[in-house]
TrEMBL record:
Pfam families in UniProt: SBP_bac_1 (PF01547)
Keywords, sorted A to Z: Cell membrane, Lipoprotein, Membrane, Palmitate, Signal
SUPFAM superfamilies, alphabetized: Periplasmic binding protein-like II
Keyword presence, Disulfide bond: no
Region (Disordered) residue spans: 372-393
Record flagged with keyword Amino-acid biosynthesis: no
Cross-referenced Gene3D superfamilies: Periplasmic binding protein-like II
Domain of life: Bacteria
Protein name, per record: Carbohydrate ABC transporter substrate-binding protein
InterPro entries xrefs: Bact_solute-bd_prot1 (IPR050490), SBP (IPR006059)
């Protein structure tokens, strides 16, 4: 699922550390010790010692594989630069905007998608023509991370299920407590805004929604799903229910403020719940994960789920077997998903506590239908051609906020008209190729 799903603690520079574990357990088929490099975005885990713990456990099973961890702050940007060479580690997190037809140029095939899908969730994103090049590190739901105590203190006992109810609830929160920011956009962080795109299938109630968008020349028109989502972002901004100056928002501080009840809600992935709970463990029970406030045409609420960053093996690696052992261990045996508030990739595993409340409320989790064979890259190609950055970049969502708060003279209708034109032109352009 994409960059927005993956906010972590920020470290000023690339951090690198070599980690080795005990050699008093497990077994290895290797005749000599191999060293592999695993590049990832979890800079916070490098500083808090979490990667030390993980690699120590891995080495209990594979003592002859030495793992060098490299963490990168601006992961999405820097790893793509490194991928211009052959030197991008042995195991890495696959950047979200690599074109499907290019997977084979960068990543080792991991098996047939049909077979892997019997064991794992989220196998649609990094597969092409029936072959999988990545396996999700976890599966995330996208919705709203909420401090329910703030809602209850304002007299709101249940989370809203429609945009109208949601706006009214935020207005009430603002009236009851002037010191609370009802919704924090995290405009300045940028990547956080992609989470507004990730809810599209759940809002529609249609697992095939993204595939249908590739044939819809006006998906941003009034009354349609994308318009509904962006309209809510526009309305909360226009009604001054967001941070006073979005351009100076602070991602790290926002997690603390949400935990402490200074923010009511943020649009994020389920991965963010443990980070926010850890910001103030005394208030952890107040932090809940709720569905985007829209009820589908069938009267139900759905929550979109998709793979987080996928583990992939560098096609140029000289240690592919060792890298695969680490990949399989991380997916099958480690607590990575649990520790990050995500749904385990292995089918049948228990859902995290943060999602149980939504499940009890009747919210249904929805994994999108994969693109038809031969059209795996169609949505991405149209998205790239349109330069709208749906699910990948922040520019156009920032544009919506800027219009709402008066930083530009555009109207919401002007922006949606522009989006429709660009999307329609992109469909036509891609169809000719």
């Amino acid at each position: 699922m994409k960059k927005g799903l993956l906010g972590v603690g920020i470290i000023a520079a690339v951090a690198s550390i070599t980690l080795t574990g005990c050699s008093n357990g497990g077994s290895s088929s290797y005749g000599k010790k191999e060293t592999i490099t695993f590049i990832n975005h979890r800079t916070d885990w490098e500083t808090n010692g979490k990667w030390d713990e993980y690699i120590k456990k891995f080495n209990e099973k594979y003592p002859d594989i030495k793992v060098k961890i490299q963490t990168i702050t601006d992961y999405a940007g820097q790893i793509k630069t490194r991928m211009n060479s052959k030197e991008y580690g042995d195991l890495l997190m696959i950047p979200g905007d690599i074109k499907a037809q290019d997977y084979k140029n960068f990543f080792e095939p991991l098996g047939k998608k049909e077979e892997l899908s019997k064991k794992y969730l989220g196998m649609n994103d990094r597969s092409y023509e029936g072959t999988s090049y990545g396996i999700p590190s976890q599966v995330n739901a996208t919705g709203m991370v909420t401090n329910m105590k703030v809602f209850k203190d304002a007299g709101i006992k249940t989370f809203p299920k429609t945009p109208e109810e949601f706006l009214k609830a935020l207005e009430t929160i603002k009236e009851k407590n002037k010191d609370v920011t009802p919704l924090y956009t995290n405009y300045a962080a940028g990547w956080t805004l992609s989470n507004w795109d990730f809810v599209k299938a759940g809002v529609s109630g249609d697992a095939d929604f993204t595939n249908k968008m590739t044939a819809d020349t006006a998906p941003f028109s009034d009354g349609k799903v994308m318009n509904t989502i962006y309209r809510l972002l526009y309305d909360v901004s226009k009604n001054k229910l967001i941070e006073s100056d979005p351009t100076t928002s602070d991602w790290e501080q926002s997690k603390v403020d949400l935990a402490n009840g200074k923010i009511a809600v943020m649009q994020l992935g389920s991965w963010a719940v443990p980070q926010i709970q850890q910001a103030n463990s005394d208030n952890a029970k107040n932090i809940k994960f709720q569905a985007f406030p829209v009820t589908a045409a069938d009267g139900k609420q759905y929550m979109s789920v998709a793979g987080d960053y996928n583990y992939g093996i560098n096609v140029h690696s000289k240690h592919k077997k060792a890298a695969r052992k680490l990949l399989d261990w991380l997916v099958n045996e480690s607590d990575y998903a649990k520790d990050n508030g995500g749904i385990p990739t292995v089918r049948g595993a228990e859902y995290p506590e943060a999602l149980k409340a939504s499940k009890e409320a009747g919210v249904q989790l929805m994994e999108e239908t994969p693109a038809p064979e031969g059209k795996e890259s169609l949505f991405g190609d149209i998205n790239d051609q349109s330069q709208l950055g749906i699910g990948s970049t922040d520019k156009e969502k920032q544009r919506i906020i800027d219009a709402a708060i008066g930083n530009s003279k555009e109207s919401f209708e002007d922006i949606m008209k522009d989006f429709n034109t660009r999307w329609a032109n992109a469909i036509q352009s891609v169809s000719k190729k």
